[in-house]
């Protein structure tokens, strides 16, 4: 068996414990290391398969046979703790597909209206291990920071906002990324698609954060055909104000980190085709080198703008998957990008099979955050969406698949809590341990030892044995986010920004409802603990109806009454930017109310106060946000680099 994570606390958290519900249950920094069987039933029950609520609106599923039964004939899989025995006794390849803005109802295998749109992805999910209690972050940059760093964004200053083209900040360079650790373990590391973790300086670029190559874009969104940022920028030329457009599409290599290759000649080709061809090329090269491969395919799909891929890219049968059950123009555009994603994944996997690397590959599929209502996403039956801490904003589809996993351990649903930070320690420990045990390498190898020591300092948990049903889930809580406005919305001189005019640019800090929270020196936060979820100073959001029962003008349904939430709170607009000005504290029992419809904060004050005390502990560990307002200083440097978005603080 793999070594279990140390029982000794390794979090930088206050030492005092929290008595939850009068049961004497200590803070999760200790409890999370205990086996669930030792916990009170109130907190252990969420992991049970026979009574857990469905996560994404599909029919409930049951766990496969227990580990003891599956162990019969698994060729030692259970006895070695789920280590992956590759065909050539080398480290397994890793293909990680991160989808952009895919909500809980936005992929076929757990959707009501997208059934049949993603048959290839559905097949992998159905034959893999589906994570039914998977939590990411509420928006793109925090999610990517959590994935690549293994830390809660609130601990590294990445909890507030997305990185835009002219954002002069990035993920702290002293952090060791998952790509860097895998590189140190002997992997060829390649990224394709969206970066989103900083580009104002060369040191923020992905090839300086562990990737051998990167092909794609650096900011938060681009047009699928022109590869330009969708909104123009106000610049000054010869004393006159003009609106300028800039391309965000680049290829870079670790061996030449300052030689960014811009690709204006690709203008007019849909991004999905370009990404697919690039990943296929990486796979072919990997087959030639025979070295372990890590591919991070950070797909642009299904983020807006909803640029429909060319009809010629699909057969009649493929295009017909966008059936009559998918209502509304916007939702159907979204479906076309989902169709392109499924085709892309299928073509990549077929190339991996042709190159004889698929059978030794671990495939991970996950979304970065919930769907965006005005951009075609739907999070049915969950409440809220992208930008917010409701289930619809952070609970998203995810699964793992590999032919290295015996079939008796696949085709199952995993009910344990899993957070996006858990991928880093899970993947690194899995591949490092598989190599040291199966390939009979030296267990004292310096690189492996150093990598594993660093992993022990992360916020994420090693989850592989739990995913395989060989150990109890290690988590009892998920700190969804902590965002203290008293110091995350500050101006250049460190003073608190009190109004939108102080910024003069877009940001969560400029929104009037956020300003009201800041003026009260409040903290916006959410915590999942066992079956319970607490939201503090969160803004009311609607929930979704069943798509097949009729649609609004966008083709996306909202449940009756969701446009009248009380306290002057209106309906959700573009990813929730038109919520009201009132922020509240909410408490939900997710076992009995997965859609967050019944606020129990008044009926269960003892639960509310206990979870608030736990959040107070977490707040004490929050780092100041490193967010900085967007700047026009970038535009001149971009103009001198073929009108392409690129580093400008240390431009060369």
What's the alpha carbon Rg, rounded to whole Å? Answer: 23 Å
Per DSSP E runs of 2 or more residues, the count of β-strands stands at 18
What is the fold named in CATH at topology level of the largest domain? Alkaline Phosphatase, subunit A
Task: Kindly report the name of the CATH homologous superfamily of the largest domain.
Answer: Alkaline Phosphatase, subunit A
Instruction: Please work out how many helical segments DSSP would assign.
Output: 18
Highest-level CATH class of the largest domain? Alpha Beta
Quickly count the domains. 2
Main structural class: alpha/beta
Overall morphology: globular
Biggest β-sheet: count, sense, barrel? 10 strands, mixed
Strand order of the largest sheet: 9-8-5-4-10-1-11-12-2-13
Instruction: Give the quaternary arrangement of the chains.
Output: single chain
Uncertain runs are 1-65, 436-444, 498-508, 550-554, 563-572
- Label the CATH architecture of the largest domain: 3-Layer(aba) Sandwich
Task: State the helical fraction.
Answer: 10-25%
Spatial gap, N to C terminus: 51 Å
Strand content: 5-15%
Q: Name the average pLDDT.
A: 81
Topology, element by element:
Blueprint: H1 28-31, H2 41-44, H3 67-70, E1 93-99, H4 119-126, E2 129-131, E3 134-135, H5 140-149, H6 153-156, H7 178-184, E4 188-194, E5 213-217, E6 233-237, E7 240-244, E8 250-253, E9 256-262, H8 271-289, E10 293-298, H9 316-319, H10 329-354, E11 361-367, H11 391-394, E12 398-401, E13 412-414, E14 418-419, H12 423-438, H13 446-455, H14 464-467, E15 477-484, H15 485-488, H16 512-519, E16 523-529, E17 532-539, E18 583-589, H17 605-619, H18 634-639
Parallel strand pairs: 1-10, 1-11, 2-13, 3-14, 4-5, 4-10
Antiparallel strand pairs: 2-12, 5-8, 6-7, 8-9, 11-12, 15-16, 16-17, 17-18
């Amino acid at each position: 068996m793999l070594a279990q994570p140390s029982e000794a606390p390794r979090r930088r958290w206050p030492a005092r414990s929290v008595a939850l519900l009068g049961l004497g249950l200590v803070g999760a920094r200790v409890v999370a290391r205990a086996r669930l069987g030792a916990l009170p039933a109130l907190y252990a029950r969420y992991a049970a398969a026979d009574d857990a609520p469905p996560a994404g609106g599909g029919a409930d599923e049951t766990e496969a046979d227990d580990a003891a039964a599956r162990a019969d004939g698994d060729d030692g899989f259970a006895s070695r703790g789920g280590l992956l025995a590759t065909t050539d006794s080398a480290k397994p390849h890793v293909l990680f597909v991160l989808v952009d803005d895919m909500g809980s109802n936005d992929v076929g295998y757990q959707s009501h209206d997208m059934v049949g749109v993603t048959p290839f992805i559905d097949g992998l999910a159905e034959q893999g291990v589906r994570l039914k209690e998977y939590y990411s972050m509420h928006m793109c940059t925090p999610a990517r920071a959590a994935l690549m760093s293994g830390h809660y964004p609130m601990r590294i200053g990445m909890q507030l906002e997305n990185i835009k083209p002219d954002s002069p900040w990035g993920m702290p360079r002293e952090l060791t990324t998952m790509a860097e650790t895998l590189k140190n373990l002997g992997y060829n590391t390649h990224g394709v698609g969206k970066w989103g973790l900083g580009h104002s300086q060369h040191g923020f670029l992905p090839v300086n954060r562990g990737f051998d190559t990167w092909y794609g874009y650096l900011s938060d969104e681009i047009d699928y055909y022109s590869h330009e940022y969708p909104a123009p920028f106000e610049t000054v030329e010869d004393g006159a104000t003009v609106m300028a457009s800039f391309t965000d599409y680049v290829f870079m290599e670790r061996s030449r980190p300052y030689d960014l290759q811009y690709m204006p000649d690709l203008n007019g080709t849909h991004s999905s085709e370009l990404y697919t061809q690039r990943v296929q090329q990486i796979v072919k090269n990997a087959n030639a080198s025979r070295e372990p491969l890590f591919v991070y395919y950070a797909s642009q799909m299904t983020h807006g703008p909803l640029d429909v891929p060319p009809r010629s890219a699909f057969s009649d049968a493929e295009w017909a998957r966008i059936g009559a059950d998918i209502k509304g123009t916007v939702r159907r555009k979204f479906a076309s990008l989902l169709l392109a994603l499924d085709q892309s994944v299928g073509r990549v996997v077929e190339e991996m099979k042709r190159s004889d690397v698929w059978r030794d590959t671990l495939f991970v599929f996950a979304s970065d955050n919930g769907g965006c209502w005005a951009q075609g996403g739907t999070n049915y039956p969950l409440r809220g969406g992208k930008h917010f801490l409701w289930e619809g904003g952070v609970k998203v589809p995810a699964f793992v698949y590999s032919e290295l996993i015996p079939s008796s351990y696949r085709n199952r649903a995993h009910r344990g809590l899993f957070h996006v930070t858990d991928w880093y320690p899970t993947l690194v420990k899995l591949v490092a341990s598989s190599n040291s045990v199966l390939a009979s390498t030296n267990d004292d190898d310096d690189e492996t030892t150093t990598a594993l020591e660093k992993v022990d300092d992360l916020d994420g948990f090693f989850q592989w044995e739990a995913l395989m049903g060989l150990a109890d889930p290690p988590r009892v809580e998920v700190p969804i986010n902590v965002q203290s406005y008293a110091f995350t919305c500050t101006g250049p001189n460190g003073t608190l920004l009190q109004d939108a005019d102080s910024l003069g640019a877009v940001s969560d800090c400029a929104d009037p409802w956020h300003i009201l929270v800041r003026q009260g020196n409040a903290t916006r936060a959410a915590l999942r603990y066992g079956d319970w979820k607490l939201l503090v100073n969160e803004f009311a959001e609607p929930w979704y109806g069943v798509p097949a029962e009729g649609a609004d003008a966008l083709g996306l349904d909202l449940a009756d009454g969701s446009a009248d939430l009380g306290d002057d709170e209106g309906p959700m607009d573009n990813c929730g930017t038109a919520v009201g000005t009132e922020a509240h504290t909410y408490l939900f029992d997710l076992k009995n109310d997965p859609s967050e419809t019944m606020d129990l904060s008044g009926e269960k004050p003892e639960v509310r106060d206990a979870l608030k005390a736990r959040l107070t502990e977490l707040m004490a560990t929050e780092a100041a946000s490193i967010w900085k307002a967007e700047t026009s200083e970038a535009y001149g440097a971009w103009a001198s680099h073929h009108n392409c978005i690129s580093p400008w603080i240390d431009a060369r």
